[in-house]
Every structure is written in C-alpha cells, then in structure tokens.
Amino acid sequence: MDLHGIGVGRGVATGPILRMPDPLPEPEQTGFSGDAADEKNRVAEALTAVAAEYQARGAKAGGAARDVLEAAALMAQDPTLVDDVNARIDSGTNGERAVFEAFAGFQQMLIGLGGLMAERATDLGDVSQRVIAHLRGVAAPGVPVSDEPFILVAPDLAPADTALLDLEKVLGLITRDGGPTSHTAILARSKSIPAIVGVTGALDLVDHTVVILDAAAGTVYISPSEDEIAEAKKRIADRAAAAKAPITDGALADGTLVPLLANLGSPKDAAAAIELGAEGVGLFRTEFLFLEATTAPTVEEQRTQYTELLRHFSGRKVVVRALDAGADKPLSFLNDAHEENPALGLRGLRALRASEQILRDQLTALAQADAETDADLWVMAPMVSDTEETEYFVSLGKELGLKTVGVMAEVPSLAVLADQVLQVADFASIGTNDLTQYTLAADRMLGSVAHFQDPWHPAVLRLIKLIGDAGAANGKPVGICGEAAADPQLAVILVGLGATTLSMTPAAFADVRAELAKYTLDQARELAAKALQAHTAADARKVGSTL
Fold first, then answer.
1. For the segment 429-442, what is each residue's pLDDT rounded down to a tens digit?
2. Is 56 helix (H, G, I), strand (E, B) or coil?
3. How many folded domains does the chain comprise?
4. Stated pTM of the model
5. Do 161 and 60 have their domain in common?
6. 543/529 Cα distance (integer angstroms)
7. Cα–chain-centroid distance for residue 209?
8. Which amino acids are annotated catalytic?
C-alpha cells in the first residue's frame, strides 16, 4: 500500500530506503566513580565538544542550515540546562543520566509551549544524544553510511543530520513527523532534496525496499514496477534539464509579471540568492541581529547590516520585516516573561509597541540605510491584527523617514479587515505559515495535527482571496512570503487569488518559474476559483494536480 504525507517541493527520487538507526539506549540510573566535581567537568567537556561540533558543521553548511546549527550549539551550553545537569550530579546521578533527565525535562516543557518552541524539542533531543555519545566514547546516531545511494527514512531529522547530508548518496527524505514548516522541510527546500514529511507508516518500511518518492503528489510508491521507475527517472532528468535553463524573470504565459523574490535571514545569503535568480527580497528576517544579544543592538550596528543587504539589491525591491520576537524567539530585553501560550501572546508588533524605543531604533536604522543605497526598501510589521495597529505602524514608519510601509498578514482578523487595512498600508505580505496555523488552530510544528497545517485548505485560500481582492481594490501590492510560495502548483493558485509577488527559499525559483510560465492570468484565476470551492485541502490540491 502506498504511503502519503506532505510533499516538500516538486522533486522526485527513486531507490532503496534505509532507516535512521535507533537512538542510543536510555542511560542507567546509577551513581558514578570519583567525586561530583570530576563528573561535572566530564559533562562540561562533552557539552563544549558538542557545541563546537555544531558550530563547525554550521560554518561548513552555510545558509539556513548554519542558523539552525548555531541555535543547537547554544542549546548545548544553555546555562539553565547546565545548572540542572549539575544539580542532578550533586544528588548522586551519573553524568549520562543527568544529561538525559535534564534535557528530557526541557524537551517536555518545549512541547507543552507549542508553536516553534515545540519543534526545538527535536533539536534538543539531538543535542542530548550527541552529548551522551561523547560521554560514552561512541559515535552519535546519525545518517546511515552506505556505498550505494538511498532514500532516508526517519521519525524526524535533527538539523545536524539534515545540514550536511551527502547529496551524492541521500536521494530523498521520508519522515513520520513534521509539517511543511519543520526544520526538515525548510532545510530540504534549501538543499533541493526531494522530501515528504508527516508520513504515517513510514517507519514500517523495511530497509532496501525500493520506492518512488513523489513530493509533488505527496506519495511514497512502494515496490514500483520497472516502467514506473523508468518514468520517475525521466521526470528526474527533465527537472534537472529545466534547472539549467537560462534564468528569466518570473512571469505567466501571457506575459503578466510575477516577480520571484527571496526569503533571507542574513546579508550573507544575498549573493547566492541573486545567483539563483532572485529579483529582489520579499522577506528579510532581522532577528539574526537580536537573538544572541543581551541588549538591543544600536542604531549604528543595525544600519551597517541593513546597508550591506541593500547594496546587494541595487534598484530592486527589498522587503524587511521588523523584529518578530516572541513565541519561539523570546528576548531578555524585550519579552522573556513566561506565557502559557506564547503563540497567542506578546509577540511581533505587540511586543514592539510595549518597548517602542527598540522599534524606533530599528526603523531609524532602516531609514538611514535606505538613504545610503539605491535599493527600493519596503518595511513591514509582523503579526498585525487590525486597522488600528496598521495605522500605528505606518504612521511611525513614515515619521521616521521610511517611504513604503506595510504589514504582514498572518492573523485571520487582518484578512477579514483587509479592505480597511489596505486603505492605510502601502502593501501587505501574507505569511502563509502562521496564517494557516491560526486559521486551522493547528500548531505548525506538532506532528499529530500536521494534516491540518496545510495552506491548501480552502479556509486559508479564502482568507488569501480577501486580501488579494482588497489589494486590487485599493491599488496596493499583495505578496506571499510563507513557505506556500515555494509550492509550484500552489504558486499558480496564489497568483489567481491576487498575489502580485511570490517570495520563497531561492532553491525553489526554478520549479516555480517553470510552472508559472504554463498558465495565463485568466487560467490561474479559473483554477483559483475551483480551489476555493473545495471542501478539504486534499480536494483543493486535486485542483492543483490538474495543472
């Protein structure tokens, strides 16, 4: 029986599967030889070594993988966790067991918080396994070694595993857990690895079983025929040829331009995005400047980084998102108070309004960087709920010298009020990841509700249509900057719903560009209308599969 999940991209892979080895056995509940100080030092050395390994892997991997691995390195030396481990050793628990218990307890706390915090539980589990392996003097569990290429099957993948996959050997990824915005999905997109996540029954597959992984269909075909394998290999070859085609601007078949923009997290990623055909930036995340700081960066520190980014995109649009802190990204100088449900708490613009000087400094730095370059700078606020918040942010941005000021549409209330909001804002950019999460009340990182976390759901599509219509009525641009834009079939539907630009991981440009070129604007609108009438995400996706 074939297996189904959430496909990442349009890739196809075929070959034998290998399963990720089981984790290390749980450490025994015993004491230790020697004194507590020696045991603490032994653990400290292991934590330092694992952190250094993450940093080295991050430096080698670069891009999105670097950011994820550097975050894991910080987890390995988190003072709270270290204190917990040491307290357990003081009570007589051996180092391995102390690490296991402390990290497991913190994992459960993260899972309880939900949202992106829950996804970090997987990352924390990987840190724990690597520290325990170091203490035991054995290799940490990881991607299996094989002389032949294979498709990797796992419950989920830790960032350290995904970041440095040997793409000559690992043909694709199948995971039981995860959703379209999990670390596995994000890193798979950034590396152009065919992947399907959230696959029920994945772990029942037997090593060396030959499968076809069809990400476009979200289907794992088990023990396919020779003819089916030949067809899959032809599709793989066709995609490889299309990826080598000359880079052109994003456009529909009738010549309607649909600029393809990049989602970036650091100025260091700009050059690679341009090489892949980025026509500008649709989402620049500024959190990299804040997350590792104990105090807010100065105006000058920020101006330097923003200027570096803008100089890469002379004459092109660059959309910068104001600091989006909260939920999974608490900051000690902004909003580190405990919240029972941080995804619904003081995050995004709400947190910035509560600490307005931080917002003023950031907008001032952006205005200064804009004055020093000739890029077309647009600035937007995260997590805007209504017209009043829109008026506040737009007014402040203009006061501080910004020319184009808009909002992110991530909260359903903003979509409902889009006709009002886009009378005030210069533009809107739809963050489909959070919009889907809040619309379907489905934690975007919780595997048990991954099937709800689907931007194809007609409820999400109808909200996008409200925003698209409001943009058209007010003559205001409406972009897409969530992971949905990287799905070529959905990209066509989104344009039909009123999106004027699409922003995504640069690795998705080739597939999306090729798909858009097949349809006119009228055809995209016709398909979008059909998708809106679907009863389920699966039904809407069937409309997309007819493209």
1. 999 989 998 999 87
2. helix
3. 3
4. 0.74
5. no
6. 10
7. 30
8. 183, 481
